């Protein structure tokens, strides 16, 4: 009898080991389901707003929380704007256009850490650093990646870059000379590269991802590149009809629906702001467990969220949203 019990325990441990292995080595699109299908809406109090259109900032995107306030990018004017926590503007500066030192072509995304802002330029194959005050610091050459989508600062000597069309891996840790230190997530398992499009955030020793066209959230270890979890978003959906391929690339179909527009990691939570998918009133910010990716609750925003435009501190949520008049608003909420 005891032998049988030991055999059963052994089989159980093997099955658990295999499940963990499958999760770590499975397809990018593999997910574990959420156990809760309905949203639980928690109260969110609107404290203040700033009309950015009135300031000539008509395409504000990429909101980041910094030590002394907030920073965001206005893409059309190529302007970086810093505010305090009460939405008062502290500083602005423009990114010069060109190919020389400190100059960039297309300015789409950035990251900030310890008073330094990092931009990536796919066309020029470089990473450019500025101070929060607008002083150009240095350019770093980054080559060998077909399409560089974003950069996250790890420290002064290491950066994470995402390359949807990379030949081997999606995410790479590189040093300040552009050398690859680590590869994370194979990119060989999906036919259409648009499936990999995502929001990313580095926090501590982990990388967090929420799919733009795939209803999935993931967490990876930066230490060994392993996948910690891969979970469905609440309101999961079939993605087969999202993608199209053509002779010189790939894209989204007219019927495509989308997942996350922006994410943040704070207070032990994984915040993911959802695309409205053409639905009136669909203004959800869904909150998951940072450790396990399990759905916890949701907030309902005042308006529709802009791309990559949420930031969180201990007591407040900050967003950039578009109201019914098409105006861009920098918002401050209290939890």
Protein model, in words:
It is built from 1 helix and 26 strands. With 335 residues, the protein is mainly β. The protein has a single domain, classed as Neuraminidase, CATH 2.120.10.30. The strands form 7 sheets. The protein has a 4-stranded antiparallel beta sheet with strand order 1-26-25-24, with no helix packed on it. A hairpin with a 5-residue loop joins strand 4 and strand 5. The N and C termini lie far apart (56 Å). About 7% of the residues have low confidence.
Helix fraction, binned, reads: under 10%
What are the low-pLDDT stretches, counting only 5+ consecutive residues below 50? 4-25
The number of distinct β-strands equals 26
Distance between the termini: 56 Å
Quick recap of the structure?
With about 325 residues, the chain is mainly β.
Set out the fold topology.
Layout: H1 2-25, E1 45-51, E2 60-66, E3 69-74, E4 79-83, E5 89-94, E6 110-113, E7 116-121, E8 126-131, E9 136-141, E10 150-155, E11 158-162, E12 169-175, E13 180-186, E14 198-203, E15 206-211, E16 216-221, E17 227-232, E18 243-246, E19 249-252, E20 260-266, E21 269-274, E22 284-289, E23 295-300, E24 304-312, E25 316-322, E26 328-334
Antiparallel strand pairs: 1-26, 2-3, 3-4, 4-5, 6-7, 7-8, 8-9, 10-11, 11-12, 12-13, 14-15, 15-16, 16-17, 18-19, 20-21, 21-22, 22-23, 24-25, 25-26
Key attributes of the depicted protein:
26 strands, 4-stranded antiparallel beta sheet, 47% strand, 335 residues, Neuraminidase, mainly beta, single chain, globular
